[in-house]
């Protein structure tokens, strides 16, 4: 009875808005052309190459092979290493924090304030947020000044800026929210009754964490990793402002290829970033299957 | 030993674990709060250094308004600022409209999961890759002259998913019996939309518009590829910061002003959104 009336309802609803449906479908076609097609074109462009500033449109693997050149390979490996380190540290800090925020008995209003504080940075200008670190970390900056004043160091501290550690640090601060928010969302919808049941059945807190909370928050963890690792692999502002030219990452390679009009190289490097992301996410998903199947998680969430 | 453990299976382990657990909770809490501090401390420092005589030094004193005076005298930032403002307003309005259109459609649509995924893909594509992809299609493939229109396109692709998610929060809880009741009482479709749906969805639509505005106003990575010869505010900040140290104090002053406008605006949006969501 209920099913019949529901289908009748949806039928009457769909009859109500045929005009808006065509508009929405038109929008989806436009969106597809603007988002998906460029990404496919980007990928196919990486199979062309540039000869004397002109792109030749014959399929070749030369551009991809040129990524294996000693210089570019070093840069790629360095980028991968820094991005993975940042993502791992981010996860180690963000997961416990998200767990505390969602299930640690934090007041609703405090939760809302913290969530807002974590969302606001998305809308702030990154270059001014990063460049100010120079006046904090540099040789005559705040920290160095405080250290000298307090007598902890004899001279100014010059190793806080323009090196890999500064780049790591800048990226850690920038990408913290992208790791916390998805994990928080995944944990906050876990039913408290499940956690309570696990405790009632005599599971230790560690067991509850590893066998209930972690498996059920896997989609959030995966989303957090994608949202953090992607920008970290393509980081542009942090390495150039805090690395001071000493830390070359993939973004520098893209920039120089772009200004040299070598578009297939730009395409290959950008595709490489997305491929790395895809490979790591698939690897994580397979690894996650040992904890519990992702499909089961989704069906639990849906119910 | 063994019998003791069996006699009191719960007591001892629970107590020690609870001790460990408290330590972990404290660490979890303060670790995260430290990072939130690290996000906001530079903003406060930026505001402080913007009124400092030596903005790049470790001590803000002595204070001065010189940087703001220099900002008023130097007019080079005005053009990029106004262009950014115009583009951001446009992107905000278009995202709000598009997010409303798609957000009303998705909850009752066929294959809504797939459609939602299609819409939020730009969230998962690094800005550099998306910018490069659009650049190659527009410039290298189609040979178009890049300018404001391509910046708008790039910004819209970035802003729309955020706007859609905000609108979806409200549309996915929308009670369609309200619309039916209005229809039964003889209201026209337009009236129903204006008098019933719009007031309920308004916080989401306004939120989508503001998010679009702010995301566009602060966008760097996609703009770098799509700007052609035009300059937006963040690009101006970026090139000045990267190349000319003497310009940095002016940038601090300008960034502070933008922050003073942006932060209350955002706080307002979140207040309205959370207040509304708690009520519904």
From TrEMBL, chain A:
Domain of life of the source: Bacteria
InterPro entries (UniProt xref): MetI-like, MetI-like_sf
Keywords: Cell membrane, Membrane, Transmembrane, Transmembrane helix, Transport
Annotated membrane topology: Multi-pass membrane protein
Residue ranges of the TM segments: 24-48, 82-101, 113-132, 165-187, 208-237, 265-288
Entry coiled-coil feature ranges: none
Location in or out of the cell: Cell membrane
Entry-linked PROSITE patterns: ABC_TM1 (PS50928)
CDD domains attached to this UniProt entry: TM_PBP2
Main localisation: membrane
Keyword Membrane: yes
Signal sequence, renumbered to the chain: none
Ranges for domain ABC transmembrane type-1: 76-284
A Pfam family per the record: BPD_transp_1
PANTHER family per record: INNER MEMBRANE ABC TRANSPORTER PERMEASE PROTEIN YDCU-RELATED, INNER MEMBRANE ABC TRANSPORTER PERMEASE PROTEIN YDCU-RELATED-RELATED
Family statement: Belongs to the binding-protein-dependent transport system permease family. CysTW subfamily.
Annotated protein name in UniProt: Spermidine Putrescine ABC transporter permease component potB (TC_3.A.1.11.1)
Species: Mesorhizobium ventifaucium
UniProtKB/TrEMBL annotation, chain B:
Residues annotated as domain ABC transmembrane type-1: 81-269
Pfam families from the UniProt entry: BPD_transp_1
Topological type in the membrane: Multi-pass membrane protein
Keywords from the UniProt entry: Cell membrane, Membrane, Transmembrane, Transmembrane helix, Transport
UniProt subcellular location: Cell membrane
Signal peptide start and end residues: none
Spans through the membrane: 30-51, 77-102, 114-142, 148-170, 199-217, 250-274
Keyword Transmembrane helix included in the entry's annotation: yes
Coiled-coil portions: none
Similarity-based family: Belongs to the binding-protein-dependent transport system permease family. CysTW subfamily.
Protein name: Spermidine Putrescine ABC transporter permease component potC (TC_3.A.1.11.1)
Organism of provenance: Mesorhizobium ventifaucium
